[in-house]
Amino acid sequence: MSAATFVDGYLADMGPDDADITSHDAYTNGVPHATFNRLRSCDPVHWTAETDGSGFWSILRYDDALAVSRDYDTFTSTKGIRLEEMDEEQLLARRTMMELDPPEHTRYRRLVNKGFTRRTVDTFEDVIRQLAAEVVEAALLKGEFDFVAEISEQLPMRMLGRLLGTSDEHGHQLVAWGDALLGNTDPDFTDFPVDLTDTEQYRMVPFRSPAALEIFQFAQQQAKERRSCPRDDVITKLLEPTRDGDPLSDLEFNNFFTLLVAAGNDTTRYTMTHGVWNMMNHPQLWNALRERPELMTSGVEEVLRTSSVTMHFRRTATRDIEMRSRRIKAGDKVVIWFNSANHDPDGFPIPFRFDLAREKNDHMAFGRNGPHFCLGAWLARMEVRLVFEELMKRIDHLEPAGPIERLRSNFISGIKRLPVKVV
Fold this sequence. Notes:
alpha+beta, three-stranded antiparallel sheet
């Protein structure tokens, strides 16, 4: 159950100020914002020790996070984007475009980028709205339900299936696989949580998860079907030759497909859920959105900022460099904490207030502009907006119907269960 409370639109309970930010258990009651506040104020480039790793530099302020995100020459993604340290054999076996820098990163991204541009996503609005309406109406008929299972999981799952060219019947399995990957530290989502069980046998597959092996089999089956009968979908595009004329290898295709499954549902689901949770704690926000629908666009951006579902990405220093009087050495791990940057008062006045009308909101929920800007950013924005719009057409508001449960993870901030009641 979350310990967070709200007073007049402000987050009042920000957790302990001495949390171990590397511990997955430290986030099961909510992000320990008090700890990040203290570090950001007193030691914004903070050396964080690890019991099972070499340690890393935590980048906690907004301006520093922007600088590190954009400077891929100095801070490379090629050594991994999570805290886990991998040898070269593992890196090669598990590499996706996330673990590449330009120009190699660009080669991968070009395969599917056109399908996720703002202009392309705008053409999906009618389809997504219809899906959102169907999902919302089916859930509301129950009167009392788990918002995650009935709404925020359903819409991204069904839209992902349409993009991939798979059926709704496959959707539930894709969600379960995605949960096992991004929730690979939560016993609710996997029988092999990486820090609680021995996962050495899976060290060569993404997220050290046996689910990746099942996804590989499914991906190859889908690839076989597209090769014999191409379609207008993302899988077919992944099988096409790249600009240099070479198709992806089977391993590259499998890993890319696995990345889409992991990122294509969970992060949007958790963002959507966080937004509804905030609205239930702040009924005045829900009422304001209903009365002033012109605030919906800025409201969605505030949902993205305050949720900061992907809490961090790691880089590795390629050379010695000094930041805020700290000497970062070549080879050191450097971790950008987006959840901290998105609550830095230097970037966002009164950062712990949920402000529907926040005018300057250049948050880092999608990593900001640059080579690693989130591929699905515009799709996620639209899905969140349309779910809120369809809900507000039909009900006054939702009320809590029980305690929430959070994901056990230091990587993804997510509410995995949110019982609600229709009012």
